[in-house]
């Protein structure tokens, strides 16, 4: 377990706002809150704060007796609280200095400043939420589109946990059959036959495999899709970024080599977050700064889920364009023939003759031609990459989930082979225990101490 002290942190984002919430959790949460906050009307009976009701009062610096804010307070009795401990919240005015003062008073009264994610960690350790719900809280806060929101809210509601728990129960039931085979081997009982056990393992394995395969879909819904805009200098990459964003985000000039660094921003497409990355034009450059920019462009092109390869329709293809075509061979791509408002020098056939296989769209960043076609093509690529819509269903979205399911699958395969080749049930039981452990690690049912740090470190203070 953890040290049962009382922690404090702002629960609202830093900066100015109408209200800021300072949250306390732990055995002394109520005492500390009542040392610095007192109600406008005296409490009845004997200093018992009203449970779960916002009450108006004042925050006072006890050493100087000075009132520093008029603020609401709310008290929650353990264990039906966010963290499972006593919780108090002070809803003060949202000024950064004021919040620092209130925190300082709480710390002087005995609270400790919370570590990142410590509130959620306590909620998990006290059994208020499972690990998938803790992760879902973070995903909700970070959601950049409707798909990410719906996935997070389903996960917070326990959809993933329920599915994993069901698989874990099946594992335990198979284990029970194996135990029976071990314990009653010499007796004349009607024990399940190896074929029956193998069939149950097979059914479970296909369930686990299906969830394992939902990773790409879940990841793309949660994180969005990274689309790198690549092409030789001056073909109009930055103009395309600006047009799609509806904002002058990147500098556009007629000088080749304008963009040096990667510039990215997000658009929402049918609920998916699409992270567009404008990059430096690809060419041989003698300029150090530009060369670093080009290296970054190639790096992004390698890491992206999708490439938007841009070509200049009004000028002949050159070596750098061939290099860009080569980039598209390695990942899902869409090609744009930009500047199609000008007299054409090249067309789709010329690109095909050079080996381009991606769909080609006639485009003009200055005349806004081809925007809808690009949106449709992007969406088609997203659906192809993510393996379809699957809205509302359960999907895993984290490498942690995928690795745990991968471990479960491997152990299931070994168990199945073991049963069919009649190895002793004790050995098969070891594999099935490994399956249960791997599944349990997803929700935090067992064996998770080591993964806790990794998960909660990602949280911010006060969550
Ligand atoms: N006629 C026409 N000009 C365009 C179009 N798109 C971009 N341009 C012009 O082409 C020039 C280069 O545009 P940028 O968007 O800076 O090109 P880039 O690919 O980002 O260039 P680098 O950052 O140097 O690699 C600018 O003068 C733009 O106004 C287009 O569709 N039609
Ligand atoms: Mg540019």
General description of the model:
It is a single chain. With 463 residues, the protein is an alpha/beta fold. Helices cover 46% and strands 17% of the residues. The strands form two sheets. It has a seven-stranded mixed beta sheet. The chain has a six-stranded mixed beta sheet with strand order 9-10-8-11-12-13, sandwiched between helices. Helix 7 packs antiparallel against helix 14 (399-420) and helix 14 runs antiparallel to helix 15. It is flat. The model is unreliable at 447-451 (pLDDT under 50). The structure holds guanosine-5'-triphosphate and magnesium ion. Magnesium ion binds at residues 237-238, 250, 258-259, 278.
Detail the topology: elements first, then pairings.
Layout lengths: L6 E4 L6 E9 L3 H8 E3 L15 E7 L4 E11 L10 E8 L1 H13 L3 E2 L4 H8 L5 H12 L3 H11 L2 H25 L10 H20 L1 H9 L1 E7 L5 H9 L17 E7 L2 E7 L9 H16 L2 E7 L6 H10 L4 E6 L9 H6 L6 E3 L8 H16 L12 H22 L4 H19 L5 H9 L6
Magnesium ion binds next to helix 9.
Largest sheet properties:
7 strands, mixed
Mean of all residue-level pLDDT scores? 90
Strand content: 15-25%
Count up the helices: 16
How many domains? 3
* Helix/sheet category: alpha/beta
Instruction: Name the helicity range.
Output: 40-55%
Known CATH architecture of the largest domain = 3-Layer(aba) Sandwich
The CATH homologous superfamily of the largest domain corresponds to P-loop containing nucleotide triphosphate hydrolases
CATH class of the largest domain: Alpha Beta
Distance between the termini: 19 Å
Strand order of the largest sheet: 3-4-5-6-2-1-7
Radius of gyration: 29 Å
Specify the oligomeric state.
Answer: single chain
CATH names the topology of the largest domain as Rossmann fold
- Spans with pLDDT under 50 lasting ≥5 residues? 447-451
Helix/strand order, N-terminal first: EEHEEEEHEHHHHHHEHEEHEHEHEHHHH
Q: Got a strand count?
A: 13
Bound compounds = guanosine-5'-triphosphate, magnesium ion
| Silhouette | flat
């Amino acid at each position: 377990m953890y040290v049962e002290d009382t922690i404090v942190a702002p629960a609202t984002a830093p900066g100015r706002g109408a209200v800021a919430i300072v949250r306390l959790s732990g055995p002394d949460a109520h005492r500390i809150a009542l040392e610095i906050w007192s109600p406008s009307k005296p409490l009845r009976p004997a200093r018992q704060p009203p449970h779960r009701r916002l009450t108006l009062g004042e925050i006072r610096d006890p050493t100087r007796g000075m009132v520093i804010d008029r603020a609401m307070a709310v008290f929650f009795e353990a264990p039906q609280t966010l963290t499972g401990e006593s919780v108090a919240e002070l809803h003060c005015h949202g000024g950064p200095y004021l919040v620092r003062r209130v925190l300082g008073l709480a710390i002087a009264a005995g609270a400790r400043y919370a570590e990142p994610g410590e509130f959620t960690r306590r909620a998990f350790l006290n059994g208020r939420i499972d690990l998938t719900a803790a992760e879902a809280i973070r995903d909700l806060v970070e959601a950049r589109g409707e798909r990410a929101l719906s996935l997070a809210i389903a996960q917070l509601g326990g959809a993933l946990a329920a599915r994993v728990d069901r698989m874990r129960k099946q594992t335990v039931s198979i284990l029970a059959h194996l135990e029976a085979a071990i314990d009653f081997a010499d007796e004349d009982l009607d024990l399940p036959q190896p074929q029956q056990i193998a069939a149950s393992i097979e059914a479970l394995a296909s369930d686990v495999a299906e969830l394992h395969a939902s990773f790409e879909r879940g990841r793309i819904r949660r994180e969005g899709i990274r689309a790198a805009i690549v092409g030789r200098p001056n073909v109009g990459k930055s103009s395309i970024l600006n047009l799609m964003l509806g904002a002058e985000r990147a500098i556009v000039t007629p000088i080749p080599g304008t963009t040096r660094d990667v510039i990215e921003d997000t658009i929402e497409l049918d609920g998916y977050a699409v992270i567009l990355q404008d990059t430096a034009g690809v060419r041989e450059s003698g300029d150090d700064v530009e060369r670093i920019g080009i290296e970054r462009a190639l790096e992004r092109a390698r890491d992206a889920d999708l490439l938007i390869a841009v070509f200049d329709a009004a000028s002949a293809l050159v070596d750098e364009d061939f290099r860009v075509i080569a980039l598209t061979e390695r990942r899902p791509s869409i090609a744009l023939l930009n500047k199609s408002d000008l007299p054409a020098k090249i067309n789709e056939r010329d690109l095909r003759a050079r080996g381009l296989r991606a769909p080609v769209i006639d485009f003009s960043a200055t005349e806004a031609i081809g925007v809808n076609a690009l949106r449709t093509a992007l969406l088609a690529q997203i659906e192809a990459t993510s393996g379809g819509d699957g809205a509302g269903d359960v999907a895993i979205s984290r490498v942690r989930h995928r690795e745990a399911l991968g471990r479960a699958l491997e152990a299931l395969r070994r168990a199945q082979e073991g049963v069919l080749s009649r190895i002793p049930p004790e050995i098969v039981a070891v594999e099935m225990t490994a399956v249960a452990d791997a599944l349990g690690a997803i929700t935090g049912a067992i064996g998770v101490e080591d993964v806790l740090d990794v998960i909660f470190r990602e949280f911010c203070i006060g969550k």
